[in-house]
Design brief:
20% of the residues lie in helices and 16% in strands. Strand 4 and strand 5 form a beta hairpin. The protein is built from two helices and seven strands, in the order H-E-E-E-E-E-E-E-H. It has a four-stranded mixed β-sheet with strand order 2-3-4-5, with no helix packed on it. The protein has a three-stranded mixed β-sheet with strand order 1-6-7, with no helix packed on it. With 152 residues, the chain is of the alpha/beta class. The two termini are 38 Å apart. The longest helix has 16 residues.
C-alpha cells in the first residue's frame, strides 16, 4: 500500500510532510509527521524481514531486507514503520543509527547496514596475561551491555 496522501512538500532528511498556506485537513499531515518522528527519534527495529509480518501494531518498525516482497517490494534497506492501516518507509541516510532488537546491537548505515559481529572473549595463545584478559573481557562486557556489540 502506498502513502494515503503524497505531496512533494516534505523535509529533506526524514520526508516529513510540510504544511502549506490554506491547507485543508492539516491534522492528517501533522499526525503523519509526529508518527514518523516518534519512530525515528531513537529508531528501534524489531527485526529484519523481507515481507510484512502477519500482524503488527502502530509504531512497529522493521528493517527491510532483500528480496523484499508484497507491500515492501522495492524497499530494501528502508525502515518499514507501521501506521496500523498502512506502512510508511524511511530511506536510510549516511550515519543513521538504529537499535536492532533481534540482534541486540546498534547498526549503522554507511552505504549499507553494518552487520553486528560477535567478538569472542580472549582465550588461547602461548603467553597469557591475566590482567590484560580481564580488562579486555570487561570492555567487551560493557560494549555488549550498551548494545554496541551483540551478545555472544
Amino acid at each position: 500500500m502506498t502513502d494515503p496522501i503524497a505531496l512533494d512538500a516534505r523535509t529533506p532528511r526524514h520526508a516529513l510532510p510540510l504544511l502549506y498556506p490554506g491547507q485543508a485537513q492539516k491534522e492528517i499531515f501533522v499526525n503523519e509527521a509526529l508518527a514518523r518522528l516518534d519512530a525515528l527519534a531513537q529508531p528501534v527495529v524489531l527485526a529484519s524481514r523481507a515481507a510484512p509480518p502477519p500482524s503488527h501494531a502502530a509504531g512497529d518498525t522493521y528493517l527491510v531486507v532483500a528480496p523484499a516482497s508484497e507491500e515492501w517490494s522495492g524497499r530494501e534497506n528502508c525502515l518499514a514503520i507501521s501506521q496500523e492501516t498502512h506502512w510508511v518507509f524511511q530511506t536510510p541516510y549516511e550515519g543513521m543509527r538504529i537499535y536492532d532488537r533481534e540482534e541486540a546491537a546498534i547498526r549503522l548505515w554507511r552505504d549499507g547496514w553494518s552487520d553486528p559481529q560477535s567478538i569472542p572473549d580472549p582465550a588461547g595463545g602461548s603467553t597469557i596475561d591475566i590482567e590484560a584478559r580481564g580488562t579486555i573481557a570487561t570492555l567487551l562486557l560493557c560494549l555488549r551491555s550498551l548494545g554496541i556489540l551483540p551478545a555472544n
